[in-house]
Amino acid sequence: MSTRDRNTLLLAFAWLVAIAATAGSLYYSQIRHFIPCE
């Protein structure tokens, strides 16, 4: 695997992690009405 392919794969993985974290945060705040701090 070339360096460029590896960098592309790592960037795609980073995007997936960021999207999953954002979606999870929105789910808990908007759908489950979870209040992080009281």
Entry keywords:
DsbB-like_sf; 38 residues; 1 helix
Q: In this structure, how is the largest beta sheet organized?
A: none
Query: What value does the average pLDDT take?
Result: 95
From the alpha-carbon coordinates, what is the Rg to the nearest angstrom? 15 Å
Shape: rod-shaped
List low-pLDDT spans.
Answer: none
> What order do the SSEs take from the amino end to the carboxyl end, as H and E?
H
Number of strands: 0
Amino- and carboxy-terminal Cα gap: 49 Å
Instruction: State which percent range the strand residues make up.
Output: under 5%
Percent of residues in helices: over 70%
Judged by helices, strands and strand pairing, the structural class is mainly alpha
Number of helices: 1
Could you provide a short overview of the structure?
It comes from Oceanithermus profundus. By secondary structure, the protein is mainly α. It has one helix spanning 3-31.
Model description:
By secondary structure, the protein is mainly alpha-helical. The termini are far apart. The longest helix has 29 residues, at 3-31. The protein contains one helix and no strands.
